Amino acid sequence: MKAWIVMPKNEFYCEVIFAETRGKARAKARYCDGFEDCEFVDIEVRRMPKADRLYKGQFGLDWYNADDRIFLVKDCGWDCGDDYFDSDECEECPAKEYCDKYKDYMNAWFESEGEK
To answer: What is the DSSP string of the chain?
Structure first.
């Protein structure tokens, strides 16, 4: 089974879905939150071969699953996005040690504390 990144055209939001082909990944995407109003042709699909090894019979990767999140942050450079960044939630995030956004936040915090 192949891993695919699917996203609505001109949007930041995306999902990782497992499917045999690009077309099947696009069709599956229509069942994901955030894709309900997308036309089939308005869903962009790209291969994500490094995630193929994570397939264990599931629909796709789950941001709320600790192992999936660690993979996405550590191996793919993903983060929660500027619109969703909440430093209070970072302390509970299983991937914080790999997250550049969290590291930048902590560096800025330590710098501001040093100025006092």
So the answer is: -EEEEEEETT-S--EEEEESSHHHHHHHHTTSTT-TT--GGGEEEEE-GGGGGG-SS-SB--TTSHHHHHHHHHTT-----TTT--HHHHTT-TTGGG-HHHHHHHHHHHHHHHT-
Place of tokens 């955030």: 34
Q: Output the pTM of the full model.
A: 0.82
Domains of the chain: which residue ranges?
1-61
pLDDT at 21: 98
Pair 93, 99: CB distance under 8 Å: yes
- The rounded distance, in Å, linking the Cα atoms of 27 and 47 is 15
